[in-house]
Amino acid sequence: RICIWAYNSPVFSPFLPDDGPYSKGNKDSQGTDNSLTSRRQSIPEDLRGVTIVELIKKEGSTLGLTISGGTDKDGKPRVSNLRPGGLAARSDQLNVGDYIKSVNGINLTKLRHEEIISLLKNVGERVVLEVEYELPPSGRRG
């Protein structure tokens, strides 16, 4: 990922271009990245970033993402898949392996998988996600 200090911004728009200045980049970058978030239950604090992602979807449409986890599953809720061309993928603000901490202010840490899925399906047009993601080891640039 590319570390961009603009993440302190309180809200992001899903309408930024894919290569925009707020892009977190692509996790599938070249090289040997031994810090696969998808296998972890938590990210070390010094490598953790938290951001707010706002998505605006049309009524009846989906976010185009798959969530794994929940209190009855394998741990903290995280993005396990992004549908190509879906709203979440086009926003370029989410990556597979990112943890979803809350949806529209509702904390997900104590919800079962089915409750999380139901919440995401019935969330409405404005979706505000609190997302925890892993900073790249080389993300400290001057």
UniProtKB/TrEMBL annotation:
Domain named PDZ: residues: 52-135
GO biological process, one term: neurotransmitter receptor transport, endosome to postsynaptic membrane
Signal peptide boundaries: none
Location of this chain's protein in the cell: Cytoplasm
Biased composition, class Polar residues, residue ranges: 28-41
Keywords: Cytoplasm, Repeat
Alphabetical list of Pfam families matching this protein: PDZ
Annotated spans, Disordered: 16-43, 67-86
PROSITE patterns the UniProt entry points to: PDZ
Entry GO CC: cytoplasm
Top-level taxon of the source organism: Eukaryota
Gene3D superfamilies membership: 2.30.42.10
Protein name per the record: PDZ domain-containing protein
Organism listed in the record: Oncorhynchus tshawytscha
Gene (UniProt): ARFRP1
